[in-house]
Amino acid sequence: QLQLVESGGGLVQPGGSLRLSCAASGSIFSSYVMGWYRQAPGKQRELVVVVTGGGSTNYADSLKGRFTISRDNAKNTVYLQMNSLKPEDTAVYYCNAVSSSYEVYWGQGTQVTVSS
User: Cβ–Cβ contacts within 10 Å for residue 86, how many?
Assistant: First the structure.
């Protein structure tokens, strides 16, 4: 069992930056694939990026160069650095974890609003 708690969302102006954090209640070490997804109102949840325990990443093509994922297994925390934010980045951002036995966990989501 794993609990994921996100933080760092909020209101930011276009061109600004935010860093989201996802803290896991248990040790993720290198046993979990971690990721970020987002969902805008009326739209399907979409992949932002995933990272394996070995550090391999897979970004949505449209977000490469602006968003960066990192993980600190000692702190059981995953981060999403978001730069050059655009209004179309407005969404609820969800943290995700998949165990080695393919159990799937989701955070509660954190709202990111990009507006002037």
Answer: 11
